[in-house]
Design a protein that fits this description.
7 helices
C-alpha cells in the first residue's frame, strides 16, 4: 500500500527542480553498473541491446540480461518503499507516447543502439560512431522540444 501511495504522491508532486546531488549520485551508479557489466561480462550496458536479448528467440545469455533488467525495475521500487519520492508525470496522451516510442524504435534501429549504449558507454570509449550518434540524438531532442513547445504550443 505504501508503494501505491508514494507512487501517486510522486505524480502529484511532479516538478523539474535542479537536483545536482541526486543527479550526480544517479550518474555515478549508472557509471559503476556500466563498468561492472563491461568488466564482468564484457558487454556494453545499452538497454536496447539488453532488452533485445530477452525477446524471443532469446539469447543464450538471457540470464544476466534478465538480472540487469530486474535490477533496473527493483531499485526504484526499493527507493520508494524506503520513503523516497521519484517525481514522474506523463504530460502527453497515450497516442503521443505510442508515436514517440515508434520513432525512438526506428532511431535505435538505424542508429545501431540507444542513448545508454552510445551516450554512456560508447562516448566513454571515445567511439567516433557513438559520439556522432549522441550528437544526432541531442540535436533531434532540441528540435523536438522546440517544435512541440513553441510551434505546436504543447
Amino acid at each position: 500500500m505504501k508503494l501505491v501511495q508514494n507512487y501517486y504522491r510522486c505524480i502529484l508532486d511532479y516538478s523539474t527542480e535542479f537536483t545536482p546531488w541526486a543527479s550526480l549520485g544517479g550518474g555515478i551508479l549508472i557509471g559503476i553498473s556500466a563498468v561492472l557489466l563491461m568488466a564482468v561480462r564484457g558487454r556494453i550496458a545499452g538497454m536496447t541491446g539488453i532488452l533485445s536479448g530477452l525477446i524471443p528467440p532469446m539469447s543464450s545469455d538471457w540470464s544476466w540480461r534478465a538480472a540487469f533488467l530486474i535490477g533496473a525495475i527493483i531499485a526504484p521500487m526499493g527507493y520508494i518503499l524506503a520513503g523516497g519520492v521519484v517525481p514522474f508525470a506523463v504530460p502527453v496522451s497515450t497516442t503521443a507516447l505510442t508515436i514517440g516510442g515508434f520513432i525512438v524504435g526506428v532511431g535505435v534501429y538505424y542508429g545501431s543502439g540507444c542513448t545508454s549504449g552510445h551516450g554512456v558507454c560508447g562516448m566513454a570509449r571515445l567511439s567516433p560512431r557513438s559520439i556522432a550518434a549522441t550528437v544526432v540524438f541531442m540535436i533531434a531532442c532540441f528540435i523536438t522540444v522546440f517544435v512541440i513547445r513553441h510551434v505546436l504550443g504543447g
